[in-house]
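Weekly puzzle thread! Below is a chain. First person to post its structure in token form gets bragging rights.
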Amino acid sequence: MLMGVALIRTRIFDVDVYPSHALVFGSVTILITGAYLVIVGLASHVLGLLSAATNLPVKTLGVTVALAGLGILLLSEQLRQRLRFLISRHLHRPTFDYRQVWSTFTQRTRSLIDEDAFCRAVSHWVSETFSTLAVSLWRLDPATEQLTLGGSTSLPTSSPASAPTGNPEEFAKALRALKEPVNIDHSRDAWAARLREIHPSVFPTGGNRVALPLRAGDDLLGVLILGDRVSGIPFSAEDFDLLKCAADQIASGLLGLQLSRQRVRSKEMEAFQTMSAFFVHDLKNTASTLSLTLRNLQQHFSDPAFREDALRAVGKSAQHLNDLIARLTRLRQEWRVSATPGNLVSVTDSALEAAGQDPRVQVKKEFTEVPPVLVDAVQMEKVIVNLVLNSRDAMPEGGQIRVSTSHQPPWGVVAVTDQGCGMSPDFVRLSLFRPFQTTKRNGLGIGMFHSKTIIDAHGGRMEVETAPGQGTTIRVYLPLAPIS
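Winning reply:
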């Protein structure tokens, strides 16, 4: 007993045993035969008891039928195939070093961000892993229902897309029905003939070609075709198991790259929309200023002072349009402000002049001298113009807008207050400074987002005080310039 305990503790019996196919197959055959004969013996005994009162040789007949059934069972090719599959999967030494297989796959594909490069790398990896000279990976385009060559070890990269003969939808439907690896040389279906056509065999002794679907859930991303195996060795059950696992990994990689490409395109479109919205908003403000000037031109054209203001407003609008055109040519450059010490009162007064006048709205200036602030005058004028125009839009029946400047160390503050409809706390908290969020029927929802972007770039902040039906006050805080 002590010796047995010692053997167990030293793990002397912990060895890997891989019996050969012949040994296991023979053992299983003997086991099945023995169990079968025991059952036949018991059945014969029962039949003998039942036939004791008769002269019929029922027992002899039963044994004869049983022996015939045993012969049929042992000669069954289906049984032999299932036994071979069972032995190959559970009792035979693995053909592949799976650690090395997946380590190589990961090393070759982890840094690839292009689908074509990924397909080429996968094709060569499959060729090396399964000793198969001809491997091609075809991607399925869900829009056209056609296959396009992603990568191959035997076909040229300029190989044309496989436009299936007949109905492409039927061809794609047949491919989507595939669940397991298929020997396309044994199949007589039209889709198999098409796959044989796009992946021709090169060596007459290379064995049969196998097609493997690349699936991500219920979606078919493509098909992997293997052929011309070295020495024409047929694919075993272990080969098919590894191929199915590899297909899942390849499909997962392809899906990830496709989603990444879609995300990049979405980000590019989002950036384009945001940038274009900035310019459209500036153009909208400029058009609003020109429209207001033209509306008042008929009534006050005879006033020399008004004509002078109108010409100045038109000239400033034209300059602003030229600035927009110049900015469009520099879209690839990073957007930033050029903040220098400046006079906040002068910047605010210039912005009010650029916003123009509306006879329905009275603008009241309450300016207090403020020490120099760090400000980009051009960008800050856009912020104040936007706030004033928003206040006008909030008072369609007219009213008063109060614009003030003040000094609250370490900030210079400009505030715009209106008597308009106000905003709800939820809108201010969740939507006011987000792009494309607006309460105005014809608004773009970009003005406050643009303004906050400019103020943030200055190192300042914005505060909103509002309530439905009680008007709105927006304060902009800009840092004071350091005293030299």
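Puzzle host: Confirmed. Bonus trivia for everyone else. The chain has a mean pLDDT of 80.
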